[in-house]
Specification:
single chain, 454 residues, Growth Hormone, Chain: A, globular
Length: 454
């Protein structure tokens, strides 16, 4: 069985021309994610609450940071236009590593809590930039019919590491919370090794790609699905956020439905970590249990399911994919509602298993979905639009979710009376978002099929 697993992940399992890039990505996936796992919301959120005693508002900001960081994605895509994407990603990785060193040195005071929040915001902006620029690397190095499966292989390793590393590292905090300093310095070592591996990747056709990016008169080669619907002409290097949304009605519709799907999920994810922290605070080995339920379980299940989602996505348009995918997220939120309503930690754990199934597809869909709309020269622009809109919903959903759940006290304003919150019923609000998103994706796919036949 072990030999079979090794063979499945071996470079020989992918097409010949993709092997060098795949091998370096595989090496990076075995090391760098240790650092990423330490700043995941379900991990750093627990540290922020227990060690730095950050309140609900600061907690919401940390949980919102991955989505807020997507506001910077358009900045990264424009900044890297005409430049080597590998070099650009490497420099961004070094900035993230410097911030990780900063976390290890923070004092456990209110000032330390503020600085932690700032560092997390910077780190998440770096990760958003890396994700944005990686889209081009994957588009250039891997063909459409194998792209999701190759990405799925590396994401599977990433998921396993991100599932295991927090539980192992945070178990040290059950003995002494001050051990977090050594944990984050260890993560820095893994990040440096991963960055060294990644810097050796070469992009196929990079010279032509850079010419496309810098010469608006070059005619783009359609790569979308179906290509004729997404043939844009000649000055698309000047494409802007609003231009893309105006000209591509299908991508615009996709983003509207994605906004509803994402808003409900972001609300839920924020509150679930908050609830897990409260339920496990007084338990023996509370740090370890919070990591197992909040991080390890969903990542392990996501790892198991990611190859299924990859094969499905390789043969399915993203709009149809999202119909089924949204249904899984809706099931997760439904279980979270009942778990919170009755205060059942075991049911919350079950809901995290279902979320893991959904996350396996989400990791692929988020990175690759826009490729079904963009031609080859617009990939970075489209992921920039996609990521920026993620930032918009991320700027509001965590705070809206926490305010609905916890409420607020007297404000001193007559027009805004005190509100006690609606508690677990907040998850029903999130469930409504999922329902309308699922209907919207189904309608979009039907419209695209009609346009394809026309």
């Amino acid at each position: 069985m072990f030999a079979r697993i090794v063979k499945n992940f071996s470079p020989q399992s992918v097409p010949l021309m993709t092997r060098p890039s795949y091998w370096r990505e595989l090496q990076t996936a075995m090391t760098y994610p240790v650092a990423i796992s330490m700043v995941e919301g379900s991990v750093i959120g627990i540290l922020a609450r227990r060690v730095f005693d950050i309140g609900p508002l600061g907690f919401s900001l940390i949980m919102a940071s991955p989505m807020l960081a997507h506001f910077t994605s358009f900045f990264w895509s424009r900044l890297a236009r005409g430049k080597s994407k590998i070099k650009a990603i490497t420099m961004v990785r070094f900035l993230m590593i410097a911030c990780m060193v900063g976390i290890a040195a923070l004092p456990t005071t209110p000032t330390g809590g503020v600085l932690l929040t700032i560092l997390i915001l910077i780190i998440r902006a770096c990760l958003a930039g890396i994700t944005t620029l990686l889209s081009t690397v994957k588009r250039q190095n891997y063909r459409r019919n194998v792209r999701a499966q190759i990405t799925g292989k590396t994401m599977l390793i990433v998921s396993v590491i991100m599932a295991v590393a927090p539980a192992l590292c945070y178990s040290l905090l059950d003995k002494d919370p001050a051990m977090f300093r050594y944990v984050y310095l260890l993560a820095v070592v893994f990040a440096l090794i991963g960055t060294w591996f990644f810097a050796k990747i070469r992009i196929r056709g990079e010279r032509d790609l850079l010419r496309y990016e810098m010469m608006p008169s070059s005619k783009p080669t359609p790569q979308g699905s179906p290509a004729p619907l997404y043939e844009y002409n000649p000055d698309d290097s000047k494409s802007t956020f609003w231009k893309v949304l105006r000209q591509d009605k299908f991508f615009r519709s996709y983003q509207v439905n994605q906004f509803m799907l994402g808003s409900g999920n972001i609300m839920t994810a924020t509150m679930v970590v908050y609830i897990i922290e409260e339920m496990t605070r007084d338990m023996a080995n509370g740090y370890t249990w919070s990591m197992i339920i909040g991080t390890t379980m969903p990542f392990v299940v996501g790892s198991i399911c990611i190859q299924f989602w990859a094969k499905f996505l390789d043969n399915t348009h993203i709009a149809k994919f999202r119909v089924y995918h949204t249904a899984v997220f809706a099931t997760n939120i439904f279980l979270v509602f009942w778990a919170t309503y009755f205060g059942l930690l075991w049911m919350l754990a079950v809901s995290q298993l279902v979320r893991g199934v959904a996350n396996g597809g989400a990791m692929l869909a988020w990175q690759l979905g826009h490729n079904d709309f963009a031609d080859r020269r617009q990939v970075v622009t489209y992921i920039g639009v996609h990521a920026t809109l993620t930032g918009f919903r991320g700027a509001t959903a965590p705070f809206v979710g926490m305010l609905l759940y916890e409420g607020w006290g007297q404000t001193g304003w007559d027009w805004l009376p005190a509100f006690e919150g609606i508690g677990p019923y907040t998850f029903l609000v999130a469930l409504v978002f999922q329902f309308f998103a699922m209907l919207g994706f189904a309608r979009l796919y039907k419209r695209m099929q009609v346009a394809k036949r026309a």
